[in-house]
Structure formats: C-alpha cells, structure tokens
Design a protein that fits this description.
The radius of gyration is 44 Å and the shape is flat. The chain has 1026 residues and is mainly β. Among the domains are: 177 residues, no CATH class; 161 residues; 60 residues, no CATH class; 120 residues, Leucine-rich repeat, LRR (right-handed beta-alpha superhelix) (Alpha-Beta Horseshoe); 69 residues, Immunoglobulin-like (Sandwich), CATH 2.60.40. It contains 9 helices and 77 strands. The strands form 18 sheets. Strands 53-54-55-56-57-58-59-60-62-64-66 form an 11-stranded parallel sheet, with no helix packed on it. A 6-stranded mixed sheet has the order 2-1-6-5-4-3, with no helix packed on it. Strands 19, 20, 21, 22 and 23 form a 5-stranded antiparallel sheet that branches.
C-alpha cells in the first residue's frame, strides 16, 4: 500500500505545476498538492552529501547577485523546503550578515537566511518562521526528527556572544517543519553551552533520529556533552552516556565504519596533537572502552574541518578522510605564517583496531587553496568518486582513477593584465597593470604577493618563465598596488606580472609587455655667460653620461626634455649624449647673455566664469615661464611658454608668472583678477544687489565668488525677463523667481536644486531633467503644454496648475505628497504609484474618471468642475476634505467607515446624483459643512432598490435608475389598458396596477433592497438591479 501511494504521488507530481517561491512569500509546505520529499530518516552525514552542489554564483536577492561574504559551510544546509524536488538553502552564519557591528549589540537574534531554488538560481526570501534565540549555528543537522516525512533542522549553536567568551551559555534549537512551513521551534536552554559540533542518526536502531551534542567549552562552563534520545515525536531524553569527560571535540560524524549494521561515532579532538577516535556502535549506544584512536596533522597547529568516508579498497572497512587547515606554516616567499589547507586519508588493515596514514599513496596533491566542507560523492555522475568542496558546484578537487585521487581543481583563473607603462626619472619605468584583488582573480587560491619579471630577451610562458623567475631581478609588491617601478637595463625589455601563492609558486602570469627605450633627441643647446649648458630635447631617458669634446661633465636631468650641465673654464666641443640605447652627437651650441627686459602680464583682469581667456608675457630667448593661476582655473595650452590659454574658474586671485632664464634671472610678475558672472538683465542685477550680493564694478555682471555659495535665492516679483547668470549659482538649493516675465529658464547647471518656484511667468517649456535632487516644484500660471518630471524621483510637492497641460506622468514620483494640476486641460491621470499622496487638487480639468483607490494616505481631494460620473472614496479612510461639485456624478461613495473625520464635503452641482453612499445617513444630515443638491439623498446602501430596464421597447423609459425607490415609467401605449406588475427575483408579486395613461409611478420605497422583475401587458422584460 505504501508503494502504491509513492507511485501515485510521483505521477501526480509530474502533472502539477510547482510554484516557485518568490521574495516575501510565505514558506508553504503543502503535501496535498502532490509535493513529495525524499527520505530524511538518515544520518546527518548522509544528508550532508547533497543531491546538487550549489554555487555562491547562483545566489540572488531581489534580482541581484547576493553579496555572500563567506563560504557555504557547515553553518548552512541544503533542504527541499517546498517539496518541489529542488534543494534550497537554509543559512545561519555571520558571513550572511552585512553589519559586523551586530556583534556589539545586546541582541544577536537575527533571522536565518533562506534561498529558494528556482531551477536556475537561488533567490533569497523573507523568513516567516518563529523567532530563534542564538540563531547563528555552528552546525545544522537535517533530518525528520518527528517522523512526519518532512525535513526538520537541528541547529548546534556555538558562536561567540558579544563579549567573545567561549564559555558563555548558548542555546541550541530544533525547527520543526509542517505543511505550512517552519512554525515550531524547540529550544534547549538547560543544555546551553558552547556546542561546536554534533551529529544525528538512529543510534539505537528504533527508527528514530537521535542527536549527539558536543560542548567545546566544557572546561569553562561545565556543561557536559550528551546524547539526546528521541522518542519519535521530537521529545528527547538526555544522557551523558560516558561522554561527560570527553575532551573538546572539533568535528563529529555518525557512520557505520566497519559495516556491521550499527552506527559508529567518529570524533576529532585538539589534544597535544590532533586525535581522531572511533567509538564502535552496538545497536544501543557506544562501546567507549574499546575505541580506536590515531593521531593526525603533520603541521604544528591545526584543526579538522570535516570528516568523510570511502571504501577505496572494497574490503568492507571504510577509510576515514580528514580535511582541515593548519597554521604556523612558513611561506618560502617572505617567511610569513599562513593557513595551509590539507587532506589526509587513514586506512585500517586489522578491522579497525589501528589506522595508518595512507595519504601519499592515494593522493597526488595534499595541500591546496582554501575550501569549506569536503564531501565524497560522484558529483559529475561519470562513475568515478569525487572529493569536492562546498563553496561552488564546479569545485571538484580530486577524482578517483581506480588507484589514486587525482587533483583536478584549477590553479589559475583570470591572470593579471599589464595595461600601460610610462618612463619616470632617468632609469625608472612605471608599469601599470590590472588585477588588484586576488579574491576576484584567484577566487580560492592563496595569493600572497605580486611579482614582476623582466629580461632583455624575448621569452614565452613555457620556454623561459622558470629561468626568468629564478635568475632575473624580481620585486615583490603588496596586493593593494596597481603599478610599480623597475629600472631600465637595456634598450629592449620584456616584462610580465605574476601572482605568487603561499608555496612560492607562480599562480598566474600576465600578458607579455615589450618596452623599447626611445633614442634621445636634442633640439637645442645653449651656453650662458656662467658656463652653464642647457640641453633641450625629448626622450631624455636612460642617460648614462655626457661628454663635451673628449671630456665628461657633471649634469642634472630636470625632466624628460631638459638637462643642465656645468662646463669647466674654457671647455668646448660637440655634445656626446650617452644612453642605454645609443650615443647621440650634437654640435649646434649657442651662447646667450642674461635678459634685461622687464616683464608684465597682458590679459583680461575681469573675466567671466567658465570662459576661455588668453594671457601672455613678452617672449625672451633662453627663458621659460611657469604660470600659476587661482584655484579651480584650468590650463588649456601653453605650459612653460610665454602665451597660455586658460579656462576661468570661480575663484578670484592672482595670476603669477615665474620666469626661468638659462642665463641670469628675472623677477616674478603678477596680475590680480576678479571673476564675474554675466547678468544681462538689469532688474536681475538690481535684485541681487538688494539682497546683499556683491555685483562688483562691471556692467551687466556680478562677482562669481559672491554667488557660488548662495543656497537660497528669492527674486520674486522683480519684473525680470532674463535669468541668465543663474547657472553660476552652483550651490543653489532653493529658488523663488515667481511672478516675473520669464519666457526661458535654464537650470541645467543647478544640480543641487531642491525647491523651485517659478509660478506666474510666461514659460512655454521647463526642462528639469538634470535636477534629480528636486523635491518641490511650483510652476503654476505659465504657458506650459507639457511637463516631464520622470527624472525627479524624490519630488514630494508638485504644483503645475493653470497651464494648458493635456497630460502628466507622475508614475516615477513615488514620494509625491502634494499634487495640484488645477485649471488645466488634463483628461486622465494615473495615481496608482503615488501611495504617499496627501493632497490632490485637480479641479477645472476634463477628467471623466478618477481612481484614487491606491492613495490611502489622501487627506484632501478637490476634483470640482470636471466631467467625472462616478467617484468611489470607500478606501480613503483618512479623508478630511472632499470637493467634487460641478461634475456629472451619478454615483458617489463616501462610505469609508470613518466619515467623522470628513469635516468638509461639497457634492452639489451634480443634478444626476440622487444617492450618496455614507456610513450613517441620519448623522450625515447633521453635518453643516457637507453640501449636496436637494435631489440627492444620503444612504448606507445606494445600490439598494433599483430597476434597470434593459429591453422593453424603444418608446418606454424607466427612470431614474437606480433610485431611492420611486420609479417613473414613461411612453406607455396610449388609449388602452396597460397591465403593470413588479415581482421579486423568485416570482413573488409585490405590486400590480392597470393604467390608462402614458405615464405611471411605481413606489418601492418600503421594499427591501434587491432585484425586481417588471412586467408590462403580460410580457416579461429583462431587468436587473444596480
């Protein structure tokens, strides 16, 4: 019968569409929808060898790759939460917490993280389960602990609390699953302790999963390690079972090592040397007196991170595989102490009495880049056992080849790239390269240094890289640098950058850079009266000496194009410039005298900001000029010459010229300058003067320095026609230029603007697309035919009424609180995205429909003088003022359950409105500030009594419909008896009469609300109630 049920559910599952859990959805487990789960009545070790190994690269949150800080390790588990056959991730760890300062808080009870598997990626959703004390598990055990066929989670808690003391009491817990998700948590406060590891399995063979918890801090908090015996309903009985004196345990697993049908307990302990103990199971508990033990880890200090099992020799006794890391390993590169990750295999040839380290026999590589937990399984399903790491699904480290585990993990990813180089000083070459972050380029390798290698001979990756590494000059650099300097040694150099790992091995090699040292060129050589020689040219790099005639001279390289040399008395002859590339001879040497001409700077001393100006001094042979400008000015051309072009900045100050003469000296000269902003409108300039802004001495201008830091500017009602100059108010946040005569307003440079009032002008257009900080805009009373506010996403107040606008898109203005489009020509508006809207004025437009059902914060609504026929305000419970008079309303629903706060209401001027839906009709009649037409009534159910004549004939009319109860029938056949009757929907007669006239009245005022059928002259006509 059980087999039949399983087959039935499997068939049903294949035909059902399984819903994918999206963000913020509840964690539902619905076994009645064809969802089935695998067998979770297994050991925690078996269930930790997951069906699919998931990658950090597949984890997302709100559609963006999740910033996962650490590795997926024993602090996470994979579990099919929703029964769709795909394993999801449950995570409790510091690495998932972006704010590390949480450790300094008084509470650390953060919700766990849940990532649902969509089949292509992992999407994070909100936790909707119970609150958990000390949720940061050091190990999570998966299993069906209450025998309901659903996977539960037992969290072993051992993380340090804020004061960092291992002995602190911390509470482990059990999350029980149900068809409605994780709803129940069982806590174990009386077993609180620093529980670092644990395991689960059916120790006593009674069909229930038992749990073992090891307290790592026993010597401080005296909480003993225990077995938790399960009665099958997640009720546990605690027993020390001889564990009370076991030393601290790092890792533990339950596994039938000797294949006798009983679970054995394997633990690792950090004693003087790391120990592994096997406590043999007997179907009831463990034989502690007859345990096996062996030492592990050849390194000085280390720990076991994971314990795994395999039977490579098929002798019925499982080999034990240990993986972990060791510290105090000395790097051959720089003698630093680092972590080394290792793997070891121990084998028994005497049925478990002793175990021997057979790592070298079975592994070709035993130390490697960092990892999380190791697992043993045929991950790629090629028939060969894999050993792989838990931080990414493509991380197969070793694969069995029938005699040995062969290392497969890639050692090199994305090598560094040399992007450019530049010459510095005389012999130094600055190499610029990309690839700064080893964690990105070499995601799991231990890159500790970057190195550069070079040679005067071309070499390739394979032919000479080892020779260059050993014999060439090398330089090691910290990871944070992206450029370094090497010394030029020949005219041709071949350069590579490499990453060096902790073992001193080249772990990644860049592209080959070929650097050719250029030959120097001399353009002039000048000797002054003092026997100083100045050589001017290009590419003065790699210079090893200078001779004049047959004798060397002392020299100094000032830059890549100037050399100064000192001649001896009477020394003469051609120049020999010796470099690593060649020897250059130059003989055209000129002799000059000291300059006597006085200097002065020519140019505009009152320039406009952000313009290009030219300045000059007289040209003098043998003299170069160093120009200095006020802060913020930009030199365009003419460096070190007598003529320069410069872009004017905002700062007033002084232009200075410092001449440098080959012979003699010249005094520095200067020119005071004041920077102005062009203001052509006299009224604008006058307004600025009136509010205290220094306009300086220029016509049609103000001092730029006086406007640059202005944050508030009010020039309202100043008869201003042109606001040119406003662009230089770069700090402006609030501008009021309303009630002027502006036809154009350019605010594209005022990017800090937050509030703008430009109402009452003559603006035909207004571009505020660059003002993305704008929070308030009032542009009423202009000539705007369109207004684009889609780029102003922080806008909260918008007044744009009394403009010929025909449409307005406010879908991107989700912070909008106040909106007024009063007296425009807008026929429709979408307010569905404006959930914060507080006040909305849209009177005197052409609206025929108005939906404000999404605007639940709305207090004031003015929609008078439109063409609206129906207005439903039943969801707007915070309304205080409603003005909807002068429309074409036939339906008005004010029944929102909070009419007492509606202090003002105008609904008059709607002749077709006969009924207004309210909370309390009689109380509404007493409201003195509620106004309606005399023909309209208040009701709490305006759709109560109504007759709609859908098809009588073209001459008969029933009105009004709906009605408060009085219906008028017009156009009855004349000169005959007309039999008229009204029936309930179930056929009961409630009214009948015979009429000889063409018009009749039907009064249903005293009848209940409902649908009624109308008969005229024996014929049934289709009618329905509104």
């Amino acid at each position: 019968m059980r087999l039949i049920k399983i087959i039935f559910h499997t068939i049903l599952l294949s035909f059902l569409t399984l819903s994918v859990f999206a963000q913020n959805q509840l964690l539902e487990l619905q076994t009645n929808k064809g969802r089935i789960y695998k067998n979770y009545l297994k050991t925690s070790y078996e269930l930790s060898n997951y069906d699919d190994w998931l990658s950090r690269d597949d984890i997302y949150f709100k559609g963006v790759k999740y910033p996962f800080g650490g590795l997926l390790d024993q602090c996470h588990c994979q579990i099919d939460i929703n029964g769709d056959g795909l394993e999801d991730i449950f995570y409790n760890d510091l690495n998932d917490i972006s704010d590390i300062n949480r450790f300094l808080a008084t509470s650390i009870n953060k919700s766990p993280s849940v990532f649902m598997n969509t089949g292509t990626k992992m999407e994070k959703i909100d936790w909707t389960g119970p609150s958990i004390i000390d949720p940061m598990a050091s190990e999570i055990l998966v299993g069906d602990f209450n025998n309901d066929s659903l996977p539960d989670l037992f969290s072993i808690v051992a993380y340090d609390t804020p004061n960092g003391i291992e002995g602190d009491y911390q509470i482990s817990n059990l999350l029980l699953n149900s068809k409605d998700g994780f709803k129940t948590v069982i806590e174990f406060p009386h077993q609180a302790g620093y529980h670092h590891t644990g395991c689960s399995g059916d120790i006593d063979n009674d069909g229930d999963l038992d749990v073992i918890m090891f307290n790592f801090g026993y010597w401080e908090n005296f909480i003993t390690s225990k077995i938790l015996w399960n009665d099958g309903n997640a009720n546990f009985t605690f027993s020390e079972a001889g564990f009370s004196r076991i030393a601290p345990v790092h890792r533990s697993q339950l596994f039938d090592v000797n294949k006798d049908g009983f679970l054995d307990l394997v633990i690792s302990q950090p004693l003087a040397k790391y120990h592994v103990d096997i406590m043999w199971g007997n179907g009831k508990d463990f034989d502690l007196s007859n345990s096996s033990s062996f030492e592990t880890i050849d390194y000085p200090v280390g720990s076991v991170i994971d314990i795994d099992f395999t039977d490579v020799d098929n002798n019925g006794m499982a080999e034990i595989i240990l993986s972990g890391h060791a510290t105090s390993y000395v790097s051959p590169i720089d003698s630093t102490h680092t972590n080394v990750y290792y793997i070891q295999l121990f084998q028994s040839d005497d049925n478990g009495k002793t175990f021997t380290n057979k790592t070298k026999q079975y592994f070709d590589v035993t130390s490697f880049p960092r990892f999380a937990n190791m697992s043993v399984k045929d991950l790629d399903k090629n028939g060969k056992t894999d050993i792989y790491s838990g931080d990414r699904k493509d991380s197969i480290r070793w694969e069995w080849n029938e005699t040995k585990f062969i290392y497969k993990y890639p050692k090199t990813l994305n090598p560094p790239i040399i992007s450019d180089y530049e010459f510095k000083n005389n012999f130094n070459i600055n190499i610029i390269w990309k690839g700064l972050n080893p964690s990105e380029l070499y995601e799991d390798s231990q890159i500790v240094k970057w190195a550069i290698y070079w040679s005067d001979k071309q070499w390739t990756d394979t032919s000479l890289v080892s020779k260059i590494y050993v014999s060439a000059k090398d330089a090691l650099f910290d990871e944070g640098l992206n450029q370094f300097v090497i010394e030029a040694t020949s005219k041709e150099m071949y350069i590579r950058v490499a990453a060096i790992d902790v073992f001193g091995v080249v772990s990644g090699l860049s592209n080959l850079l070929n650097v050719t040292i250029p030959k120097p060129i001399i353009t002039s050589a000048t000797v002054c009266e003092q026997n100083n020689l100045t050589i001017v040219g290009t590419d003065f790099f790699g210079i090893t000496g200078i001779n004049i005639g047959d004798y060397p001279v002392d020299y100094k390289i000032l830059s890549g194009n100037i050399i100064l040399a000192e001649l001896s008395e009477g020394q003469s002859g051609s120049i020999s410039l010796i470099s690593i590339t060649d020897t250059l001879t130059y003989s055209d040497i000129k002799t000059i005298s000291s300059p006597s001409q006085a200097l002065s700077i020519n140019g505009n001393n009152s320039p406009y900001y952000n313009t290009i100006e030219t300045y000059n001094v007289p040209e003098i042979d043998g003299v170069t000029f160093e120009w200095t400008f006020p802060q913020g000015w930009e030199l365009i051309s003419g460096s070190n010459t007598n003529i320069v072009q410069v872009k004017i900045g905002t700062t007033d100050g002084t232009i200075k010229v410092s001449p440098s003469a080959i012979c003699g000296s010249l005094e520095q000269v200067s020119l005071p300058v004041a920077v102005y902003t062009y203001v052509p409108d006299d009224n604008f300039q006058k307004a600025l003067r009136e509010i205290g802004i220094d306009i300086g001495n220029e016509v049609d201008a103000v001092l730029t320095s006086s406007v640059m830091n202005v944050s508030d500017l009010n020039v309202e009602s100043k008869v201003i026609r042109d606001l040119t100059g406003i662009q230089d108010f770069e700090s402006l946040k609030r501008l009021d230029c309303s009630n002027n005569q502006l036809e154009v307003l350019d605010l594209s440079k005022n990017i800090q603007l937050e509030e703008l009032s430009c109402s009452g002008n003559k603006l035909n257009s207004l571009d505020i697309s660059k003002n993305d900080s704008l929070k308030a805009l009032f542009c009423d009373g202009n000539k705007l035919t369109e207004l684009n506010v889609t780029q102003n996403k922080v806008l909260y107040s918008l007044g744009c009424g009394v403009n010929p606008l025909t449409s307005l898109n406010v879908s991107q203005n989700k912070e909008l609180v106040l909106l007024s489009i009063y007296s425009s020509t807008i026929s429709s508006i979408d307010l569905s995205q404006n959930s914060h809207l507080f006040l909305f004025h849209c009177g005197f437009n052409q609206l025929t429909n108005l939906d404000i059902s999404k605007n639940l914060e709305l207090r004031e609504l003015a929609c008078d003088a439109n063409q609206i026929t129906k207005l439903d305000l039943s969801k707007n419970t915070k309304l205080t003022h409603v003005i909807c008079n002068g429309n074409k309303l036939t339906s008005l629903n004010l029944k929102n359950g909070n009419n007492s706060t509606l202090t003002e209401m105008y609904a008059d001027g709607n002749p077709d409105l006969t009924c207004i839906n309210v909370d309390n009709p009689s109380l509404s009649e007493t409201y003195t500030d509620w106004h309606k037409d005399i023909t309209a009534n208040y009701s709490n159910n305006c759709v109560s009594t109504g007759i709609e004549l859908l098809e009588l004939n073209k001459s008969i009319v029933v009105k009004p419909n709906p009605s408060g109860g009085i219906f008028s029938i017009e156009g009855l056949p004349a000169n005959q008896k007309n039999n008229i009757s009204v029936h309930t929907i179930d056929g009961k007669l409630i009214r009948s009469k015979i009429s000889n006239s063409a018009n009749e009245i039907i009064d249903l005022s005293n009848n209940d609300a409902g649908i009624y059928m109308l008969q005229i002259n024996g014929q049934d006509f289709k009618i329905s109630k509104k």
